[in-house]
Structures are given as structure tokens and as C-alpha cells.
Amino acid sequence: MMASTLAHLKSRMLLPRQEAAPLEASEAAVEEANDPRAELVRRLLEYQKYKDAAEQLARQDLLGRDVYTRNVPVEAIPIPEEEVGLQEFSVLKLIEALDRVLERLVPKVQHEVVLERVSLSEALLKVAERVRTEGQVAFTSLFTEASTRQEVVVTFLAILEMVKRRLIRVVQEEPLKDIILTPNGDALERLVPTEVDESDYR
Q1: Which of 38, 63, 142, 184 has the fewest Cβ atoms within 10 Å of its own Cβ atom?
Q2: Helix 149-164, helix 91-104: angle, nearest 10
Q3: Please, are residues 77 and 187 in contact by the beta-carbon 8 Å criterion?
Q4: HEC states along the chain?
Q5: Is the model's pTM score more than 0.85?
């Protein structure tokens, strides 16, 4: 179901801008099919809708507006043209990578253990720490310890949020190869863990 939905979404994305209505139809179709990832797809479709607005703001400093930093001036972070961000790197490629992760996820027996819910803020900071310390992190490696779909989805949304805020860059050397996350300048160094605003996640 997910593979066919992704193919359908990609075909819709190739239509002229005035054909935006079918995207909403695809969203409804996913939800009507009771796909457990319907909510994720819905959010990503909404994200795609304001992608144009993000492109218009690409030259503005998003970090200072979306992430609280220490009391120092926030300078614009130059992004080399060869680097890839959400504007150039299709969100649908990230969805496809997520789908492969979910397909490999083997449910574990919980034995009545109540799992603590992982917040987007916690997931964002965890991913940020790995990218900051390792320099280059493979997309799939961020999900090796995930035992539930909820953990996978929250981590994925945290990655999207980090790209939107220009905290990291997303690159892929060749089709079908793993997606690589790298720091965007020193943006991660200026992220203050105790001051991440979670209002967007509620």
C-alpha cells in the first residue's frame, strides 16, 4: 500500500501547480485505507504545501527565528550551491527511505512493558548530537535501535525539522545509496538543548 501511495504521490507532484487538489485526494485515499502511516503522510503532504514558501525564505536566517540560541548575534549560514537541502532534495525520497526502514522493523514482544513516549524535542536533540559528534551520519543508522514505529516516525519528523531549520544538510551520492546527514556549518553548535521550542509539535 505504501509503495503504491508513494508512486501515486510522485506522479501527482509532477503535475502543474494548479492541479494541487489531487494531492489532497491522495491524502484522503491513504487515510481511508487505514494505513498506519496515514498521519505521517498527511503531515508530509502539508509540509510539501508550504515548500514554496520555504524556498522564498531560503535566503533568510531561519535558525534565529525557529531555534532559541545563546545571547549572541545569529549570523546567516552560507550554504554552498552543491549542498542539498529540502528545497532541492525531494521530500518523497526521504519518505521512501523511511518506508524501507519501516519494512525492516521487526516488532518486539513487550511483555506488558509500558514504553515511555519519545518527544520530538528529545529525538531532535539525539540526532543533533550524533551528527555533531560524527560529522556524517547515515540515515538508516539513526533507526537501528528503534523498536517501535512510534520511535521511527518521531525520529524521522525530527530529521525533517532539522533540515527545515537548516541545522543539517542532506546528501545522496547516487540513487539507491544511503542518505547522509551532515552538519550545516556551526548551526548545531549553537543549538541550546534546554531552549528548543516545542510549540510547533503540539
Answers
A1: 38
A2: 160
A3: yes
A4: CHHHHHHHHHHHHCCCHHHCHHHHHHHHHHHHCCCCCHHHHHHHHHHHHCHHHHHHCCCCCCHHHHCCCCCCCCCCCCCCCCCCCCCCCCHHHHHHHHHHHHHHCCCCCCCCCCCCCCCHHHHHHHHHHHHHHHCCEEHHHHHCCCCCHHHHHHHHHHHHHHHHCCCEEEECCCCCCCCEEEECCCCHHHCCHHHCCCHHHC
A5: no
Tell the residue number behind the cell numbers 485526494, with chain if given: 25
Q: What is the CATH number that goes with domain 50-201?
A: 1.10.10.580
Closest CA to 9 of 64, 36, 52, 49: 49
Question: Closest Cα partner for 185 from 125, 132, 141?
Answer: 132
In this structure, is the dihedral angle defined by the CA atoms of residues 65, 51, 34 and 3, taken in order, positive or negative? negative
- CA quadruple 78, 79, 85, 89: dihedral, nearest 10: 150
pLDDT tens sequence for the chain (202 residues) = 444 555 555 555 555 545 444 444 444 454 444 454 555 666 665 555 545 444 444 444 434 434 333 433 333 334 444 444 444 566 677 777 888 888 777 655 454 444 556 788 888 989 999 999 999 999 989 988 887 888 888 898 888 888 888 888 888 877 777 889 999 888 888 776 644 455 554 5
